[in-house]
Amino acid sequence: MNSEYDFEPVKGLPAELPRGEQLLWQGSPQWKSLALHGYHVRKFALYFVLLVLWRAGEGMAGGESAAQLLLGCAWLLLLGTVVCTLLLGLARLAARATLYTITNRRIVMRHGIALPMSVNIPFTAVQAASMRVYADGSGEICVALLPNQRLGYLLNWPHVRPWKFAEPQAMLRTVPQATLVAELLIGALRSAVPGAVASQSTDAGLPTHSLAA
Hints:
Number of helices: 5
Shape: elongated
Helix content: 25-40%
Structural class: alpha+beta
Low-confidence stretches: 198-213
Strand content: 15-25%
Strand order of the largest sheet: 7-6-5-9-8
């Protein structure tokens, strides 16, 4: 079976690499971690559990029978199961459709379940980068762009930093071995952009390492 990606000249890239450009790393999001941290499945599950408890408490206070209580809670459990299953499915599809690429000159994000698209971020457009690592070793690598560079938030969600609507920042979501990938990116940026330096970040939203060019 063919897919739209079978015709890529280089996997994950819209065109052949120019002379002098080298492929350094490629990877996709870990779908389970993406489900937890990108699609917030755990929070939705907790929300429905609280709804069930609230419904049960309300029913008991109102003197409902056991059958009425069971029926009232059952449909909430069913709805929660459907919602969480859909989110898990979306996370898995999104991870399969996504491929991040780092070369010695740029970052490329190929993503899109229904509408595949490719985003090129040359290192010369990068203002800073930061990282968050999760317990399983996966993590987010966030890339802030220079003020004159624009990135569509809705078109690129969930591959953008949450809540940064005015100045969208690209985000490599739940990449495996995030620390190693971030170190590779820092090295590539240092080589490509004279004067780029690595520093510690205390950003409350993404409290990890930061790279300022």
